[in-house]
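Problem: given the chain below (515 residues), write out its structure.
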Amino acid sequence: MNVDLSTLDLSRPGDLLIALAPELVLTTTALLVLIVVAWRHRTPQDLRLAGWVTLAGLGAAGLAAWFLWWQAAHAPGIAAMIAVDDFRFVADWLFLGTAGLTVLVSFEYLEREALLVPEYFALLLFATLGMMLMAGAQDLMVLFLGLELMSVAVYVLAGINRRSAAAAEAALKYFLLGAFASGFLLYGIALVYGATATTNLTLIGVQVATLGLQHNTMLLIGLGLLLVGFGFKVAAVPFHMWAPDVYDGSPTPVTGYMATAVKAAAFAALFRVLGEAFDAVPAWHAVVWWLAVATMVVGNLIALAQRTLKRMLAYSSIAHAGYLLVAVAVGTAVGSAAFLFYLVAYTLMTLAAFALLAAKGTDGERDVSIDDLAGLAQRRPWLAFALAVCMLSLLGIPGTAGFIGKWYILVAATATGQGLLAAVLVLASVISAGYYLPVIMAMYMQPEPSEQAHAGMRLGRLGAAVVAASVAGLLFFGVRPNRLLDIARTSGASVRAAPAVSSDAPPAPREPTGR
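Solution.
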């Protein structure tokens, strides 16, 4: 039977349920996992049961998002609360895929660390659900609800190891500063509503363009507070203070999840809010420009001084937030495509790097220094190769997806006359060689300190599959990026600024097309 989902009327309950199918599937799975956890929560087998149910739910939600994308589903007119566009579906795949890879990495890690807490997987599901709501939010209130759902779950995940003082410190710092950032965001939403009398992103854009609110004081203050709130969530300088300590104290798979999925969700929401609601407001371009410069420079310079691998990767993630802010600052169709492509590449290389770090140490891997990797290529050549590929991709060496992503951001910046911003990105990438290359040099050019130095490094079959898939993706997209670039370009273009004059007549529905 040929099902036509190309046009969904969100005022009808049936169509709304179809549009929310991925979120509903994930919600059902999370509730099911809670039931399983209440019944079985004492042994490693119980832990794995909850994990496999979680993986099944993530796969089903991904299939639902793929089906909507394949059917070219969209909602004509002004969407009330949830967007139905390619940008949302591609972002959903990214969140679901990252969560799935995190689950696979977590199996061996949780058992090794004796963390028999199957609630871990329910929290991952609820956090991912919040991310999906953030990326698809067409209303600032839905955005805030998704943000809080994600944040509360991640606060608990950061302190899931109750025996670790560092994890407790990380959870407390994340909670306090996260609540502070949420207050800024909510106050900004209130001021934007006061200036435009709506929280709908499209209608905000219409009000700004038609009523000439580009320089309205209340609107600008509200937008500024929104940027402060988002700046905390993406760990942009000077709102990055929480990130190094929280990343360092959290369990390593959780750190990888926070550094990738949480950051991607905040960036996706920021991109949609600025692109749809505030495209006609020129003030935010300069603010994001300076945020990008400060984040790239400060993140890379402080990373140079780090000797432990986990803190180095934490500051590296701050620097990469600056690269993504360059794509946001560009604000064009090319910039949106570069933004999505780099999000995918960054997720693969960062998640694989943290998975490899998790295999190296114990007790949170906080004490694993770069020198501890000396001679790894002699004892574990495949693990050394995988980590080397991750480091080279983070650096932006040709032949990796990281290089293509940075190159595409540079093209977008220079095409819009942002030559200085592009130059800062290149210089920041050169600085990053000072802390990425020593990792490779230690593995390949330094002798193994002892025969037992890497004897305990075990990745596990599932973790090895995650790393292998991530490294293969980095190398493949570094050579054949065209398909992913096409999807990123189409998806980024689906986030459109509001028209200058609203119209009661909905646009003509597009023809459904097979992908």
